[in-house]
User: Fold these one by one.
Assistant:
Number 1:
Amino acid sequence: MANSLITNFEKNVFNDKVMKERLSSDVYEKLKKTIENREKLDLSIAGEVAIAIKGWAMERGATHYAHWFQPMTGLTAEKHEAFLSVDKTGHMIIEFSATELIQGEPDASSFPSGGLRQTFEARGYTAWDCTSPVFIKESNAGLTLCIPTIFCSYTGEALDRKTPLLRSINAINKETIRALKELFNIEATKIIPSVGPEQEYFLIDKNKFSRRKDLIFTGRTLFGAPSPKGQEVEAHYFGAIRENVLAFMKEVNIELWKLGIFAKTQHNEAAPSQYELAPIYGNVNVVADHNQLTMETLKRVARHHDMECLLHEKPFRGVNGSGKHNNWSLITDSGLNLFSPGKTPHENTLFLFFVTAVVKAVDENALLLRCASSGPGNDQRLGGHEAPPGIISIYLGDQIYDIVQQIINTGDAKTSKCGDVLNIGIDTIPLFRKDATDRNRTSPFAFTGNKFEFRMVGSSVSIAYTNTFLNGIVADSIREMTDEVVKNKKSIRDVIKENLKAHSRVIFNGNNYTEEWRKEAEKRKLPIASSFVESIKALIEPHTIELMKRNDIYSKVELESCAEIFYDNYSKTINIEAKTMIEMASKQYIPSIIKYMNNLAETMNNMKIASDKVDISVVEQSLIDVSKLLSEAKQALENLKKKLIEAEGIKECVKKAMFYRNEIVPIMEALRKPIDELELLVDSNLWPVPSYGSMLFK
Ligand code: ADP
Ligand code: MG
């Protein structure tokens, strides 16, 4: 039997092999130069490339093409066009021109632009990004050729997540190459910011999903009493994967392999019905596209298996939420990982220099990172069970932490702790060396061997966005530190020492979940943003605006538009959640509770009639308890309705978002509380929606 991995891998990608086969060698070389060396695209080759792509796609069965882009919704967008045209005599001809490949003009007016549209023209352009490969999207409904593009306004402002990412790659490329050359005498031609995103998700039964309006409209449960069993016994994590889930994963893998996505790892996650998929890391530009395709594929394939895939950061209260651990490193074109500590990291000045640059960048831009990793959904997750808290700190591991301490305390590091041999005491088991560093699962930003793992990132967040900021702030930090050596004539070791001293407050090796850490963080004056909405302001602080401008990543208006979109999106998200709660409470919960109360009242009356010796107090007490909670719920419900009308009247986007955060969210809680308590009292046959237990345990 053919091996599905071998037969499918990159089947739907216009990859290097296909390009070589179908393009003349001259055109192939020119295109390759742009892709690999980031050289300017020679537009004269576009005609031949378009013909080759069309031929390949049509042979595969595609009838349509689409410019595929990532608007500021954080999702992807595509508008399909048939490979179709009319000739002068009115006959159908097959066509896909150079212009159609290179440029498109979707109507930009219905995508969020955060004010950019008022200031500028409504036109939006998509432009081919040949550094991410063209691919075919295949589903039971047909095949579509997708051309990865950027999306910008008439005056060149980014209207998407991709343009700033590409700019940030240029920035970090430039600064890192300079530092390597001027400080370490290393000639690199290209730096690849490399990312491996671990994607967490939940799978639940489709029928149960379709009976929960909250899941349908908001992606998370807005009500729900905890099930008797949660994740306390830790039976699910890395457990044997159930057969139906394995069948789902098998199909997901095949679909991802076809797209050239290096889907590698899969396992059960900590919460019941929670899973993870991780690809092999690669160039962040391509990986960001792949992650979008992965999320889309997970959702699409789940439906083939009568399941629904939830990508929300916190679908269920009381059990773990989902993140997207963003493993990030800088690798040169010759394969040198700048975060590789080597055997004696204390002597590895290059390594210490780049690690220090990250420490400095994270400390100076903590709130920005909080914003770049989140959305309204991540608020439910951060600080919860196992999730990193809303405070950014860096974990360096014992070995590097020890070196940093030596440098800070004595001015230099003389030794490196090394991992011992792990002896289990069984002769047949091989001896091996332990890593010099254990893992710290509680840190939002952890150094894990030869990469940084940014764990705060939410499961549904666009990593194009997260990595734009990560690349940007580190690029800036590298430039400043290089300047200190080159312009201010300091030694590299001194620059490392000074910066570690200045930014040591952001380093924390302990348990991030504790209350003590929160207090300690306050003492260290680290920014604590308990909600995403409080972190949005970081985007438009002068420090950020200048940094992003200096590095040609975002202009001031672009950042302002990002912030406006976030405030607006936050308000809209909470508004939808609140309205969904109102609908569920009014039409589902309250009528069912009243029915139950009526049953109790009837029972009580019937008991009374049957005999005056029957003790009706239990039934009566139940009725009183239920009635009390119902009144509480009803009051919160009316309150919520009133507040929503008030919110509608607020026009200014920051005020509005803060109103949702400070006034609406607490009332949503006040409504949820009595309903969840009632779920434990009311006859389960009358309860109108599936319970946590029935959704999470099958
Ligand atoms: P764990 O859950 O133990 O952290 P996983 O195997 O689930 O590990 O995921 C680790 C991720 O980190 C993978 O996507 C992997 O390819 C990626 N990764 C490994 N090395 C690097 C690196 N140098 N740069 C970026 N990502 C990396
Ligand atoms: Mg993992």
Note: The chain has a mean pLDDT of 92.
Number 2:
Amino acid sequence: MLVLGIESSCDETAAAVVNENGDILSNVVLSQLKTHQVYGGVVPEIAAREHLEHIDKVIAAAMKDANISFGDLNGVAATCGPGLIGGLMIGMMSAKAIASVHKIPFFGINHLEGHLLTARLTDKIEFPYLVLLISGGHTQLLIAEELGKYRRVGTTLDDAAGECFDKSAKLMGLPYPGGPNIEKIAKECMDSNAATQRFQLPAPMKDKKTCDFSFSGLKTAVRLHVDNLPEGALNRSDVAELSCALEIKIAEILANKSARAVSQFKKLFGRSETAKAFVVCGGVSANQKIRQQLEMLALRSDMTFHAPPPSLSGDNGAMIAWVGMERLLANNDSSLGDPLDFAAKPRWPLDPDAPKRQGAGVKA
Ligand code: KG4
Ligand code: ZN
């Protein structure tokens, strides 16, 4: 069986084909990075126009790389939320058109579910498992109980971890996207102990006995450090040291809250032989210091650790195709899928039953 997946929720136009064994037959990602970089962040209207211009070519390239034609597909999946509405509409409408013409099921996919299920695509892990989702828009701890059933155990009350990287990078004069650029320059810092001593940063919510996060205070602390340097003194080694200190602090916060979530997971599923996986996913999961901390936590907790390969940590079509494939396999009925009047949803929480959180930037 073959499913085409289309992703256009933010600034990547992407399409991919996967089969039921989890083989990725093609994975085409066209980044709009250069277009948005001059503005220091993603401009929604420009993103939508770029998606519109490139989506057909990206889909055609994914089909060509997979060496198949539309008639070979058993389903077509597209991200329908959460994300920027213009981009979502373009990917979703393309998928619906393909589904309609070729009489195959259409699947409207939650982008976050794509990140969450990537570990099943790559590592074939079983439900239930614990997930830390760290992206530009979301920072959440979730238990993936079964396909379509996700229990949120923690979320950010304000900025996401990726947002903290991006905003802090801007404050230090580094280009967008901040995460990879902070990681790159932090490697120039030769003494991480000295860096964390010089640039002390808070760990907001550290002592709160919940799995919730807060990152906006951390970004403010970065701004204060930048402001407190004598004017014009933010040289390359300052930026390298502050970047290193920030990475270490974010890794520490993520590991600390994940440890709490591991305890909750074990209380719920400790007796199960198979419930042993700890998964990290989303764009920020590409960060090596963060991966190391989380891998150490998994080891200490007698859990297996799963992080996506670089080609699947950021936004891509393969993760969207895979959710479609999982739904196809679960249904055993290829006529099923979502209706063609399925609406795009700029906000789409994975766990609609999760208790509402109070916070300036709570998104889901
Ligand atoms: O999952 P993603 O590609 O898009 C969203 O769904 O948001 O995540 C993008 C985020 C950005 O904030 C970017 O700065 C961050 O992931 N990121 C990183 C790294 N690579 C990407 N953050 C830290 N270190 C990295 N190496
Ligand atoms: Zn994403």
Note: Residues 10, 135-137, 162, 165-166, 177-180, 183, 282-284, 286-287, 314-315 surround KG4 (ligand 1) (CB under 6 Å).
Number 3:
Amino acid sequence: MRLSDRKNKKIIFIILAILSIVTTVLCYFNSAHFGASGVLKIFGINLHVQTLNGILQALQFAFLIVIIIVDYKKGLKFGHLLLAFQFLGSLVPMITSGVYSSLPGTINCIIVAIVLVIAHRQFRESEKAEKTDRVTGLFNRYSFEDSVRNDIKAWTDGFVAYIHIDGFLNVNATLGRTYGDQVLQIVAKRITDVVGSKATVFKIEGAEYALIVKNIDDCEAFVQTIIDSIEEKIILYRNDNPINVYVSAHVGIADCKYGELNGTILMKYADIALNHALRSKDNKICVFDEEIHATADKQLKLESLIKEALDNNYFYLVYQPQFVIQDHSLRGFETLIRMKLPDGTMISPGDFIEVAEQSDLIVAIDEYVIRKAMEEYRDVVIAAGKSFIISVNVSAKEIGSAGFAEKIIELVEEYDFPASCLEIEITEYSISRSIIHTEKNINILRENGIHVALDDFGTGYTSLSQLLKLPVDLLKIDKSLVDNIKDSELNQDFVKAIIYMGHLMGCDVIAEGIEDEIQLEIMNELKCDFVQGFVWGKPDKFEKSLTYCDI
Ligand code: C2E
Ligand code: MG
Ligand code: MG
């Protein structure tokens, strides 16, 4: 039984109210009618009114303590009211009749009132500590979420904003956390100084602040003044020597009119706007609008569909063969995910992978794919004498996060899958996200015999110098470079240069999206090692893919 349940709380309040009425009445009658020697007969037992009153009062205080613990705000209010009644109920008859038999009750009331005041202060202090960020002294994320969720119904205008501080992690990494904390405090002060009484400022995550603003017409101009002040030079001192630090800020804003009176949605929209701002090259401020609204709505629906698909098995895998270009022998298969809804609708990975990457759903998808592919192919690759490769795509988020390689190695061991038959495909985009973890993960994977391929190569995220540092086994030339290779000499030269560079780096090179014999012939001439494309094989279900295996 949970005392904090609404129904149970109500029962406790009712019991408390009845006890209070009875004790107050008894107090009054005790003094006014029975005097010190009043006796009542209850179930054949003679009880002094005073004794009965004492028992009831003790019970009442016990219930009062319970109700304060489960709901201290209401409990305290109720407690004060009760005590006031009881106090009067015991004091008035004493004054009017001159009989002091209810004096212990009056003193009890005074003592409990003092205890309530102390409890009130304690609860207020701990509630404040719970809602405060220790570093900056601002209200924290819980307080922000509570405020938005509880107050939104009363808002007619206003907006919430997330402020992301860029460059803070650099301060932490180069100067240490003490200096990082100082930066957070200085930024907090600058924001509060600029907003004054026009907004409430919160410190939410690591280097993120939030605002609740009301009655401001031009929210973008208002936020711009905050960004300007954050981006001014920060001077820290190490051994009395000044160190200049610069941070910048991106802001996502959501007007409360988009919240549909739901705080959780409004915060999500502000978050989406912040993500837009972070990804934008030109704008540091993004205001959630109809266009983003439509995209976000689609995204939210797709997210819940992905969750449903994971729970109900709407996903399955298809495998596309890869061949050695010179002799058409099988190199292996690329694993590609498919989503099929119960009504038969197919949703392309091009649509849902990006959405999954923006939430954490991609982690579950990637794990599903790796498990399923190993489960389906384990016996086949072993029977073939471990001679071909099963390649799986992983998201940039995964390969760029600490511990990813170890997770893959654990899975390989769990399935007893030959490590040398597994290939992890990463995209150029992952390198631009987190080069340090990506590099580390690649090294660990390769040390354990797992191949690493660089997918969508040539789509433009990676600088050449970064690329040369990456110890991958295979470069996958993107279909977009292959598409007009027949007509463009420049494209041919470009692809030739990539193949040459790949070989210099000690990698093999595969061309993706080869659809006809002419493209195939050109790739062969350019000394590309492998080929993957509709010309020699489309993605197909596991059973069909076995026809390429000759087993
Ligand atoms: P990708 O990894 O570059 O996969 C190659 C895409 O090109 C596949 O599309 C494949 O069907 C298509 N393709 C291959 N050869 C040809 C061809 O000759 N002509 C044409 N027109 N297309 C060809 P698909 O399966 O729709 O996948 C699209 C993208 O979605 C993939 O690009 C990959 O980035 C992502 N993806 C697919 N499956 C997974 C997965 O299991 N996990 C993750 N994280 N991403 C996946
Ligand atoms: Mg791929
Ligand atoms: Mg690709």
Note: The longest strand covers residues 330-340.
